[in-house]
Every structure is written in C-alpha cells, then in structure tokens.
Amino acid sequence: MGPAPLPETGFLDDWAARLRQAADRPVVGIMLRGSHARRAATEHSDVDVDVLVAAGDERPPSAPTRPAVPQPGPAGRPAPDTTYAARHAYLAEFDGRLVHVSVAARDVRSWVDRLGRPADWAFGLPVSAPARLIWAAPEWRRRIDLPVLCQPADEPRLEDLVATLGKVAGACWADDPVGVRLAAADLARLCPSVLRLANPSVRVASRRAALAAVLDLPVAPPGYPEDMRLCLGLRPGAAAAVGAAAGRLVTGIVPLIRPYAGEIAAVAGTDLAQALVDGRLDRYLAQLTRTLEPAAVAVRDTAAVPAPRAGEWSTVPASDAPVTGAPTSPGAAAAPGPARPSRLDPEIAARLRRSADGLVAAVVRQHDSGEVLMVAWMDDEALHRTLTTGRATYWSRSRQEYWVKGATSGHHQHVRSVALDCDGDALLVSVDQVGAACHTGHRTCFFTELPVSAPEAGA
C-alpha cells in the first residue's frame, strides 16, 4: 500500500481557521509536520499540527490584551508550564474516512529555541525533518516558514552511559528483572550519542529512520545490532540476557571512542577523558560487568562454551556476520577465497593466502616493547573487524565463532597496527595490551621455557 494522499489544501485551510479561532492566545503560525509533511503517511497516520502562539510578553500590535504570564496555581503554587500545552485530539472527515488530527499548542519562542536542541526521539542523531507552513502572521512568516526543521545531534553522553550500566548491574544484583530491562532500554538509547564520535554523520527525519540508522552504524562493537534490539525490547530475551547485552554494548563502545578523548573532555570533564585513556574506565567497567558475567554465559550454549574464569577470554557471537562455517577436510589445498562472507576490502582480501579452512595466523605483540603475546587465527571478516573497530577480533576454530579479546575479561587489545607478511599467510598485530594476554593470567602465552641443546662450536 502506497502513501496516503496529503490532505487537500481546503481541508488544511479550514483547520487552520478553526484552530486560530479556538486558541486562547494569539496565533502566529500553524505548521504541518510528521508523516504527512514527509509525504510518508498511510491511511492510518495522524495529521500532526503545531499551533504556534505568541509568547506572554510579545504580541502582534493588533492582538487583544491578555495576561502576560501564567497565573499562580492553587495555594500559591506556580501554574503548570504552558510552553507545550496538552495535545487536543480531533476526529475529522476526510476523503470518506475519519482522520485523527493531533494538535499541539507551542509557545513560538520556545518552539524556535527547541530547534537548537537535540530531539529526544532521535537516539542522539541530528534531525532534518520536512515541515509545511499552513498559515502564518505576516510579521512571523520569515522566521517560521521552514521547509525542513533541523535539530542538532546530542553531545556524547559517556558519563550517562556508564552510570546507566551501573543501574543495570545494580538491578541484576538485586534480582530485579524489570529494573534490568528499564535501565537497559535507557542505556541503548544513549549508545548512539557516544558511538557517533567514531561514525560518519547521518541525519534522520523520523523515529523509525533514527532506529534504522543507529542499528546500521558502520563502526560498532561485534553483535551491536542484536544487542541493541535486545536492550530496547525489540527481540525477546531473558532479563539475564538483556543485562549481558548491555554490558557488551558499553565495554565494546569504550575502546572505539578512545581516540576521541578530547571531545569527551569538553562534555564530561578531563578526569573521565583521562580515565578513558589510561585504563581506569576499563577497570571500572570490569567491576560493573562482573555482576553481569553469569548472564553473559547463560545466553550461550553452556554445554559448548564453559564459563570464563578470571583473566580468561571468551567468545562473543556476532549476529551481523556469519558465526558458523564448515571447514574443509584436513590436508585440502589452501582456500582461494574466504570461507565466510566478509566486508573486508577486496584489495586486502586478494593478498591473503589462507589455510584450508579460510584462516590466516595472527601473531600478536605489544606495540612498544615488541613482546610477543599470543597467536590466534583470523578469517577475512575477523580481519575486517580488527581493522575497522580497533579491537582485536579472532575466529575460534573450536567454537566456530568470532571472539573479541577482552570482551569478558576486560583484558582488551587496542590495535595500533596490522602488517601482512610477504607470503600473505600470516599477520603481525601490534596492540596495546590491557592486563594479561594469556587465559592463564600470564602477561604472555609464551611463558614456558624449553631447554635448548646446541652443539659446541666447531663440533
């Protein structure tokens, strides 16, 4: 079914005249907005109308005298704020059917000022929403005849994001599933404002478009779209799974925005920005997510994936890319292409010489000291995620899924550089290692010295 026709000019003109007569304050403009202004309405859509009224101390010269400010309420209390009056609903006949006309009376100065603030429904993204001026007083027309209503993006609310994860953890500790869900939904709505630092700018015109845009952000933690849906209540899941998803979102976002500490300092202060850089924030998040770790294990197949111990990494399923793959038989020739679909740059993919199961060995070292930390495996998609998120991401041959180092333990690897060897069959990943690289708790996996018996020189 295509979009519903925009109400004819006569219909809108009649409603403009009616609303002007019904208003208890001088009207300076009447604006059509919402799905009809976007030309995206269906036959079920409301006709959303803003009636812009003069401020208490500003009226057209011909306007009658009215009280300049709201009068006190009962017992001397201030009267309710009338900046945005209660909506008035009407059911009107149009094109042989009933139409819901939804009207909001707005103080014109506050309406103009509101355009300079983020929209509360846009997940922190900037807004460009079409509008249509139905009627305006001549002295106001130039100020309010705006074909597109623009609102800025929200500031990166990292402090609020971390505090809300604390509420999720607290509700989980108190065995309060409703509290977990409420806090996780608030947390998910905050995530895009922080992730926006690392992503290309995008503008939205509706709440539905905003949701689609935030779920499609190109720079995001593994599994981000599904974790967002779970926290927002858009897909089913136990409260424990919701809490675990909230923990993954925050711990996954923090490394991605580490390069933007300056922007964080401008909003939340220098201490939080420094904590983002020096690892204190990672340690604090590890404290919070310890409460959520049992939940993180519960949402996986516990028969196949054991609960992680302290200092041990665990696998993190990623729903926005394949998590299973059928390896070829042992001894088969090196795979000419990726075993699983990937978004890796084709020029890089063409240089890889993969194993029979589509993998390339990744040797991981500390970037400044050169200390060799561990060896793991990457396929094309794991390499793509490593290069684009800055978080070391690998493919588990035993569990047949992607995993991000530090996702559970907090022992993150912040990628500084990745180099491909001359044969294309090995990668050198230089990282800034937080904590232990080995699941045993050792700094490096290479902590067992073997005896070397070299023949005497000249023997």
What distance lies between the first and last C-alpha atoms, to the nearest angstrom? 89 Å
CATH topology of the largest domain: Four Helix Bundle (Hemerythrin (Met), subunit A)
Note the run of SSEs as H and E. HEEEEHEEHEHHHHHHHHHHEEHEEEE
CATH class of the largest domain: Mainly Alpha
Q: Biggest sheet, strands in spatial order? A: 3-4-2-1-6
As an assembly, this protein is: single chain
Strand content: 15-25%
**Fourth CATH level, the homologous superfamily of the largest domain:** Nucleotidyltransferases  domain 2
Beta strand count: 13
Number of helices: 14
Helicity, as a percent range: 25-40%
Biggest sheet features = 5 strands, mixed
CATH architecture heading of the largest domain? Up-down Bundle
Mean of pLDDT: 81
Rg for CA atoms: 29 Å
Shape verdict: elongated
Unreliable residue stretches: 59-84, 294-333
Question: Could you explain the architecture of this structure?
Answer:
The strands form four sheets. This protein has a five-stranded mixed beta sheet with strand order 3-4-2-1-6, sandwiched between helices. It has helices at residues 9-22, 108-114, 138-144, 158-173, 177-195, 207-215, 224-232, 239-256, 261-268, 270-278, 280-290, 293-298, 346-349, 380-389; strands spanning 27-33, 47-53, 88-94, 97-107, 127-130, 132-136, 148-151, 360-366, 372-378, 393-396, 401-404, 413-420, 426-433. The chain is built from 14 helices and 13 strands. By secondary structure, it is an alpha+beta fold. Residues 59-84 and 294-333 have low confidence and may be disordered. The protein has three domains: 9-60 and 82-151, Beta Polymerase, domain 2; 158-298, Nucleotidyltransferases  domain 2 (Four Helix Bundle (Hemerythrin (Met), subunit A)), CATH 1.20.120.330; 346-433, Phosphoribosyl-AMP cyclohydrolase (Ubiquitin-like (UB roll), Roll), CATH 3.10.20.810.
